[in-house]
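Query form — protein protein-tyrosine-phosphatase

QUESTION: What is the three-dimensional structure of this chain?
INPUT:
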Amino acid sequence: MKKILFVCHGNICRSTMAEFVMKELVRQAGLSDEIYVASAACRRDEIGSDTHYGTKAKLREEGIPFTPRKAVQITLDDYEKYDYIIGMDSENMRDLNRLTHGDPQRKICLLLELTGEDRDVADPWYTGNFDDTYTDVYKGCTALLEKIRTK
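ANSWER: The structure tokens for protein-tyrosine-phosphatase are given below.
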């Protein structure tokens, strides 16, 4: 089983959106028994909080199912547990590289790198723009699923 962990600052907006979008893409592809998806935070700001209301609203609008959850923080143990650890922005990448001592197993990448773009997924916590975030997340998750399927 391939295991994916999406990571952002607080685990209530972007990484959670990516988790639920990817779970739906995996379900639609008939791969739920082969791919496990979760999300976590780099920082402790929102530990224990549920998904941001703006993320929930956008997921509802797009017909993406989601469940109640509590934000959790990534740990070094997660580095061993997951095959793919996907950051949403350059700050996340710095945090992840520091936590994993430089990513010796090369499991970490920026979500939009998977689409050939070298940029961050904008944080809707600051922008309030969940539409653009969804577009980026969907594009990145689609590219990640394709990468996994062709490996």
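ADDITIONAL NOTE: The chain has one domain: 2-150.
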